[in-house]
Specification:
Elements (H helix, E strand, L loop, with lengths): L1 H5 L8 H10 L2 H26 L3 H17 L10 H28 L17 H14 L2 H12 L4 H8 L3 H21 L6 H10 L8 H15 L11 H44 L25 E6 L11 E3 L5 E3 L5 E3 L5 H12 L5 H4 L2 E3 L7 E3 L8 E7 L4 E6 L5 E4 L6 H7 L7 E11 L7 E6 L1 H6 L14 E6 L1 H38 L5 H7 L7
Parallel strand pairs: 8-12
Antiparallel strand pairs: 1-2, 1-7, 3-4, 5-6, 8-9, 10-11, 10-12
Helix pairs in contact: 2-3, 3-4, 3-5, 3-11, 4-5, 4-11, 4-12, 5-6, 5-7, 5-12, 7-8, 7-9, 8-9
Length: about 550
């Protein structure tokens, strides 16, 4: 009661709070905190051990060793709110070590030449247990940002809302990382030679929650051994299994070696940096200083990221009757596109290939794998199908048809100045060509690229473009890569302006001369008519007889 009411209900605390309470406090509070951690994550840890180890007793030893390692290495847990992900990795390592040790012992006992210790795939129960073993192995290799929500939702049975609360992430982040984590995990299994269908894959993930309850005896022994170890009573570890203690020591040695390798790599990187800095310093002292970074160097831009108000085209070869999926779709301000009957998909911030994979994942609720192109007939195996990753599906196509979110501007003496969309890695020459080329009045030697400085400041950088060197000599030094917000300005040649003014004046003078010559010609015509005896129009009117009056 003292622990419950004075120190707070342990079950309502986060993993980080429980771990801090276990490390900083003693007595009943620390014991209750650790017991809550075992109750919260123990079923998942035991399932991992059971999937890797065939013998339940070996799995229980690995289970004990995992939580003993938590006691010894609790201060090294960096992301304490995702403790389940950390325990999953430790359990996978401990169980893997135990499995390799057992395989080596069996090989020695049987004196067989088989390399059992290297076998990663041992089909059992029609391959289902093997799939789940590989599932845990590849899940342990995922980055923590994907592994943490998958452990919480698929292995511990939490909802997305609960996982978001435990990880302090937005709900949308949890859902998107779950989707990406599933696809990465499935791709890893494909590379391991296991090609589960979507149904089998999801069943393997969801089915993990229903396997392996913790025996009361082993849970009690584990908690008492861990509490004794934390209290500094080395003999208390003897309450647990001696095999568990051996596994703990072996895993700790492995983790120590790994950490030393990381430290050595970091020191090596620092040494290389120091040597490089010294080399640069020596060059700076000499007569040949290192040149500054060139603005013209082409950088490896990431793939085009779709943002509002881009327009994308989604086409599906086969869909539900009367519910076609084809045509252009505008990315709305909220980042979504409408799929009509099939709902909406959030695509902002994703590349085209990522959008394709996300749309296929979304359409799995409505269409079959054959309709989505996720399986194709395998010619090598008659009557069977071969899985295809969503990115390689040929039955769903996605492309950007209107690049509206990122633009630059070409201004000045070009044929068609204005706003130009960025579709990839455009350069200055590409921008001038898109604007229809230079006008005859353009100053070829006075072309500037105006680039906003990063950080949201009002400062701008003016970069000179050597057009002749780019076109005539093929020199890419000033053929800068266009970035969003750039302004490419082509100034008018002053000589061309003066010549144009002189030409305009000459045209006006010629027009005036032509008007005067025309007037002179008209007067000469009248003079010639008088000399030839013709009567001018004015005289003819005077000689006409007056009409008779009645």
């Amino acid at each position: 009661m003292h622990t419950l009411f004075c120190l707070g209900a342990a079950g309502q605390l986060t993993d980080g709070q429980l771990l801090a309470r276990f490390m900083e406090r003693g007595g009943e509070a620390a014991d209750a905190a650790f017991e809550t951690l075992v109750e919260r994550h123990g079923p998942m840890v035991l399932r991992v051990c059971l999937r890797v180890l065939d013998d339940p007793h070996d799995a229980q030893d690995a289970f004990q060793a995992t939580f003993l390692i938590l006691v010894r290495r609790s201060s090294s847990v960096r992301r304490r709110d995702s403790l389940g992900s950390w325990l999953h990795g430790v359990a996978l390592r401990v169980a893997g070590n135990a499995r390799r040790k057992n395989l080596r012992r069996r090989r020695y006992e049987r004196r067989s030449a088989e390399r059992a210790a290297e076998v990663d795939v041992c089909p059992d129960e029609g391959g289902r247990l093997d799939l789940k073993r590989l599932l845990h192995e590849e899940l342990g290799r995922l980055p923590d940002r994907y592994r943490a929500p998958m452990v919480l939702c698929y292995l511990e049975g939490h909802t997305c809302e609960e996982a978001a609360h435990r990880l302090s992430w937005p709900l949308g982040t949890v859902k998107s990382r779950l989707a990406r984590g599933r696809e990465r995990l499935r791709g890893r299994l494909l590379r391991r030679g296991v090609a589960p269908t979507v149904g089998t894959f999801m069943a393997a993930l969801a089915g993990e929650r229903a396997v392996g309850a913790i025996p009361v005896a082993i849970e009690d022994v584990t908690i008492r051994a861990a509490i004794g170890l934390a209290a500094g009573r080395g003999g208390a570890v003897e309450v647990g299994s001696s095999v568990a203690t051996e596994l703990m020591e072996g895993a700790l040695r492995t983790m120590l070696v790994t950490s030393r390798k990381v430290i050595a790599a970091a020191l090596l990187a620092v040494g290389v940096a120091v040597v490089g800095t010294g080399s640069l310093t020596q060059r700076a002292v000499g007569d040949d200083p290192a040149p500054p970074p060139r603005e013209s160097e082409m950088i490896a831009l990431p793939l085009y990221v779709v943002e509002p108000p881009d327009m994308i085209r989604v086409d599906l070869h086969e869909s539900l009757p009367g519910r076609p999926i084809r045509g252009d779709r505008l990315v709305r301000p909220d980042g979504r596109i409408s799929m009509g009957y099939y709902g909406q998909v959030y695509v902002a911030g994703l590349t085209v290939s990522e959008i394709k994979e996300k749309i296929i994942l979304h359409l799995r609720k409505y269409l079959t794998e054959e309709q989505l192109g996720l399986v194709i007939p395998d010619s090598a195996r008659s009557g069977r199908s071969r899985p295809v990753s969503p990115a390689d599906s040929t039955r769903v196509s996605v492309e950007v048809v209107a690049f509206n979110s990122k633009a630059y501007y070409v201004l000045g003496d070009v044929a068609t100045p204005g706003r130009m969309p960025i579709t990839g890695s455009e350069t200055v020459l590409d921008g001038l060509n898109c604007a229809g080329g230079l006008l005859p009045s353009a100053a070829v030697s006075n072309i500037r690229l105006v680039r906003p400085e990063p950080g949201g400041s009002n400062l701008e950088k003016f970069l000179k473009v050597d057009y002749r060197a780019i076109v005539e000599n093929g020199d890419p030094a000033t053929n800068y890569q266009i970035r969003p917000g750039d302004r490419l300005i082509v100034y008018r040649d002053p000589k061309s302006r003066l010549m144009q003014e002189q030409e305009t004046k000459a045209q006006e003078t010629n027009a005036m001369i032509e008007r005067r010559l025309s007037a002179v010609e008209q007067r000469l015509d009248r003079v010639i008519e008088l000399l030839e005896g013709r009567t001018p129009p004015s005289s003819a009117k005077e000689s006409e007889p007056e009409p008779e009056t009645p």
